[in-house]
Design a protein that fits this description.
Layout lengths: L15 H17 L5 H13 L1
């Protein structure tokens, strides 16, 4: 991101908050044990359908 921003800008806007929330979600999910890989999520959904 540093290479993509102009050096005379003081703030970064737009998608930065989205990037921060994504990073927090991944950190929280890994801490709590929520699967984030698509194959793991599909396996859980398939197991629920069978039950």
């Amino acid at each position: 991101m540093c290479g993509a921003t102009s050096p005379n800008k003081a703030k970064i806007g737009g998608c930065l908050s989205l990037l921060q929330s994504w990073a927090r979600w991944n950190h929280l999910a890994s801490y709590v044990g929520i699967p984030t890989a698509l194959k793991d999520i599909r396996l859980l959904l398939d197991q629920r359908l069978e039950a």
